[in-house]
Every structure is written in C-alpha cells, then in structure tokens.
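Check my protein:
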Amino acid sequence: MSKTRNKFSRDVRTRAVGLVLDQEAEHPSRWSAIQAVAPKISCSAQTLNDWIKKVEVDSGHRGGIPPSCLRR
C-alpha cells in the first residue's frame, strides 16, 4: 500500500485533466495548456501531466499497462 495519500479528490483530478484536454487547442502545446491549468488547482504541472498520462493509458490512447490488468 502506498504511504502517500492523494491530496486531490478523483473529481478534481478528472476536471483538471478535462480542462487541459479541452483547452489544448488554444495553446501552442499540451505542456503550455498544462502550465496554464495547474496553478488554478494548486498542483504542479508535472503532477497534472502524470494524471493525463494515466487517463490516456487507462483509455488505451497511450501505450502502457492499465492498472486493471495488474490486479490479481
């Protein structure tokens, strides 16, 4: 079990990822969209980027193993 706890609820993480994906076209890059959204929810840009990557893996839009496949 992880020794850290999530500072942000699942709802906040989901909304933040959605904001980045919705606003991505308005910015020159995804990273700049992430940097614009992260301060609004008081998280680091890297943390938000990690959340986005996880959503992409879980949905099959990025290579990797979804957590549901790791459970026994």
Observations:
- The chain has one domain: 10-70.
- Residues 10-70 form a domain with the Arc Repressor Mutant, subunit A fold (CATH 1.10.10.10).
- The longest helix spans residues 45-59.
- The helical segments are 10-23, 30-37, 45-59, 67-70.
